[in-house]
């Protein structure tokens, strides 16, 4: 695969404007607005297609790529979600990108790195709510939700991978995906949620600027989720809290209970039968029903 930037010019390739409702990203303008002196983002590249931006950027991270590298693909042919699940979508129908961070370089202890995918979720949900005019919510640990026809739908996912002293965070966000293109009936997109804009350039710019702002604050407090405000903000935007859920855990185990808190390590705390509170650090969460809150 030969990397090549998408500049937004119709003459750059025969297939790039095959769907006029899905124009290519303007890499030149995005780079100019994001890679600025003193900013987090140091490299910005758009490729036409690749298997997985995370796989590519992990390889670059191990070869010494700098913090702040951003790799975006107009199409992913082997995109991965959590638990190595496939993530597929038509070309230019969403935002598929990965970012490279080196929190150790600014003194963040490794035990706090688990907050990075949650940080990306908070930053992205806020940016998309403002820019697309759509209410977004977080599903613990790494999903983004919108409401389509009165139902919660997943429209985005986050995958974080360690690469030595670096962390690569990949994101896939369904932007203009139509109903007949959904990978599963329970998926969603910004378009299906009646977004006021599905222009991917300002959406991506807003998400990356929001991540940079949140990351800077988190690093300023050495990754402390409480002092940086990250823990409170995640809890405020998390649709999982206050719900009866089933946690499908590694090894085929499961727990059912009310999701009552996000603890200082980013774990979901369940109140199970008998009043026992049990933190869950990894697993799939299934929302069962809402729990009425006492006034």
UniProtKB/TrEMBL annotation:
Keywords: Biotin, Ligase. Residues 43-219 form the BPL/LPL catalytic domain. Residues 1-23 are annotated as: Disordered. The keyword Ligase applies. InterPro entries: Biotin_CoA_COase_ligase, BPL_C, BPL_LPL_catalytic. It comes from the Bacteria. GO terms for molecular function: biotin--[biotin carboxyl-carrier protein] ligase activity. Its EC number is 6.3.4.15. It is an enzyme of class 6 (ligase). NCBIfam families: birA_ligase (TIGR00121). This is biotin--[biotin carboxyl-carrier protein] ligase. The lineage of its organism: Bacteria, Bacillati, Actinomycetota, Actinomycetes, Kitasatosporales.
């Amino acid at each position: 695969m030969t990397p090549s930037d998408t500049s937004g010019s119709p003459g750059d390739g025969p297939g790039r404007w095959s769907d006029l409702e899905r124009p290519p990203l303007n890499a030149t303008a995005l780079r100019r607005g994001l890679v600025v002196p003193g900013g987090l983002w140091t490299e910005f590249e758009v490729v036409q297609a690749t298997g997985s931006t995370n796989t590519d950027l992990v390889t670059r991270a191990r070869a010494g790529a700098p913090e702040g590298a951003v790799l975006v693909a107009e199409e992913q042919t082997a995109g991965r979600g959590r638990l190595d699940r496939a993530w597929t979508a038509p070309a230019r129908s969403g935002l598929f990108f990965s970012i490279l961070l080196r929190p150790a370089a600014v003194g963040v202890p490794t035990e706090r790195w688990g907050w990075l995918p949650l940080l990306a979720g908070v930053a992205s949900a806020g940016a998309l709510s403002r820019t697309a005019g759509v209410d977004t919510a977080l599903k613990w640990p790494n999903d983004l939700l919108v409401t389509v026809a009165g139902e919660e739908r997943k429209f985005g996912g986050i995958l974080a991978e360690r690469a030595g002293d670096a962390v690569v965070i990949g994101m896939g966000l369904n932007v203009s995906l139509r109903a007949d293109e959904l990978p599963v009936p329970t998926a969603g997109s910004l378009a299906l949620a009646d977004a006021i804009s599905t222009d991917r350039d300002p959406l991506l710019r807003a998400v990356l600027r929001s991540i940079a702002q949140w990351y800077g604050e988190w690093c300023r407090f050495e990754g402390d989720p409480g002092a940086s405000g990250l823990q409170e903000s995640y809890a405020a935007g998390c649709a999982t809290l206050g719900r009866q859920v089933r946690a499908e855990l590694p090894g085929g185990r499961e727990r059912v209970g009310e999701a009552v808190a996000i603890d200082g390590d980013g774990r979901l705390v369940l109140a199970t039968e008998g009043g026992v509170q049990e933190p869950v650090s990894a697993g799939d969460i299934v929302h069962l029903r809402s729990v009425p809150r006492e006034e």
